[in-house]
Amino acid sequence: MQAKNILSSVTLASLLAIAGNTQAFSLSPGAVEANLNNETLQFEVERSFGGNLSLNAGFLYTEEHDAGSATLGQVGFQGVETDNRTYRAAIGARAYFYSTPDSDTGSALAFGGLFYHVIPGAQRLSAGGYGWIAPKVTSFGSTEQFYEAGGRVAYRVIQNTDVFAGYRYTYLKRDDGFDESFESGPHLGFRINF
C-alpha cells in the first residue's frame, strides 16, 4: 500500500512538472529524458521557471536484484546556470522515494548538483556528471544513507535532441540490513529539449 502511495505521489509530481516549468543543455522551457539498459528504465521531466530556477521529477524501475524489482522516484528543485552554448551547471536538492525488492519503502532528501560541458572543438559533443547525497540527518524512517552519482557523454543529433551513453551508481543503506547498490550500470538514452 505504501509503495502505491509513493508511486502515485511521484506520478502526480511528474505531471505537475510537465504542466509547470527545466534545465536542458541549453536552458529551454522544458525537457523530457529517458534511458535504459537490460534491467533498468528511467524517465525524467524538467521545467524551468523564474529565470534560472528548475523543477524536475523522475521515476526509475529496475529488475537488477534477484529478490525482485525496485522503484525510485524523485522530485528536485535547483538553481541553474548556463551560457546556452558551452556549459550547464546546477546546484540544489532532490527528494527521493523508493521501494526495495523486499517491498520496504523509505525516503531521503539529497543535496548536490551537476555539470555538463561541450567538448572543445566538438560542438555537438558534451560530457559531464552529477552527484546527489543524503546523509543520515536527511534520511527518513529506516533509511540511513542514500546517494546517486553518474556521468555521461552526449551527442546532439538534431537541434533539440541529444542521445547519450552514461553510467549511474545509486546506493542505499537501511537500518534493517539493506546496504548495497540500489541500481547501477551503464545505460543509453535520449533527451528532448522543448
From TrEMBL:
Keywords recorded for this protein, A-Z: Signal
InterPro entries cross-referenced by the UniProt entry: YfaZ (IPR009998)
Statement: the UniProt record of this protein carries the keyword Signal: yes
Signal peptide per UniProt: 1-24
Family annotation (Pfam families): YfaZ
Stated name of the protein: YfaZ family outer membrane protein
UniProt source species: Marinospirillum alkalitolerans
